[in-house]
Predict the 3D structure of the following.
Amino acid sequence: MAENPNANRSTTPVSTTFRDYISTQWAERAETLPAPREVAAFAAARRARISALHAGERLIIPAGPARVRSNDTDYAYRAHSAFSHLTGWGSDAVPDSVMVMEPTAEGHEATLYFRATAGRDSDEFYANAAIGEFWLGPRPSLAHVSADLGIATKELGALEDVLESSGATTRIVREADRELTDQVDGRRLLDAELADDAALDSPDSDGDAALMRDLSELRLVKDAWEIGQMRAAIAATQQGFDDVVADRPAITAHPRGERLVEGTFNRRARAEGNQVGYDTIAASGPHACILHWTRNDGPVVPGDLILLDAGIELDSLYTADITRTLPINGTFSEVQRRVYEAVREAADAAFAIVRPGIRFREIHAAAMKVIAAKTGEWGFLPVGAEESLDPDAQYHRRYMVHGTSHHLGIDVHDCAQARRELYLDGVLEPGMVFTIEPGLYFQPDDLTVPEEYRGIGVRIEDNILVTETGAENLSIGIPRTADDVEAWLAGSAA
């Protein structure tokens, strides 16, 4: 019998009589093969592009294993982004799956190795709590997945032959599956030793890094299917923001109202997609000055602002990343409105310059000019705004230490391994999707600002698509001017 990971508490029957009985009298399961899913053709084109960059090399792209959260309880499974991007297999991917792209004279031949459904002649389906059907539900067949994704498939066990023959021309996504990476490294070291290669201490991690870099850069420009997914993720996220606004009476009544904000939004994420794309930030009052506040255990008090940074991840694993800052009682105070509109002005200035041909870093520079001007105008800087903008000064960054933009897609911080010259210093192209998210954060104990500003944190974040002639704010439908925010909140209370 397959080992139960919780064997010390297992009460699974083990008698021969039971085994014989449970393996019989099951109805036949008729299987109708699906048509290829819409993403299949796009995923094939992505594989062709990575193939052209790695001619003659075997490429191993693991989905990754399930990750233990506590003893015998795993975190919710999510395949590695590079795997899902190249296969089109999203939230329904089977853990431990591996795609191998084998070099051929014409390019590469892709094969997807995964643990297919087990027959009732094995005891896995009832006795193995880690992978058994009775415990986790049925897995698809090899034929089903092959038809669904348009990729050849093999049983996971056949991967051993691939690993055994791995050598100097094998590349692997190292971070996806540590055990597989160790096996590949071992084979490459053995090959190097047999070849009397001097590079014994480095099992070609440089080649692996080049693969990860190329896979990251492959996502810098989104294809038409990806852009459609981004639109859908943003639409779902807008519903989540509307849910939170409508739920304000319950939220403000609870001593941990931030948790209710998180729960309300996450409910929509599970209803419309896979889950949230990242831990929801529900930061009320001075918590809004903590950039990655995810504890979300504070009250939501009328008179304060709440900064909600949240995004819904679809079953395709593409996610939105949107922030709005809302006056909890429905109306901005004079100081709150001043700070809020300054941040909006910075966001608008950054958006106004977005078009093909500019450099990505120019977006941040445009936003910072406004942040410096406003904080200088309010008397918060020890020098003038222009002097503060000097790279050796940057006094205004005290109030906004983070960057203005990051690429967005199947990862919330997408394309993170791309080269600087293609990312931060890269030239914008149609199809790129990224955030614009300036902010101002006046810490509760910051003596450089007047008392009425302390504890105010504001961020406005939108998701931007570069078009052939300029840019489109994909999240423009979520109210963002101070007047529109107030009207939004008033409408929900009506």
Q: What stands out?
A: The chain has a mean pLDDT of 94. The radius of gyration is 26 Å. The chain has 16 helices and 17 strands. The longest strand covers residues 108-114.
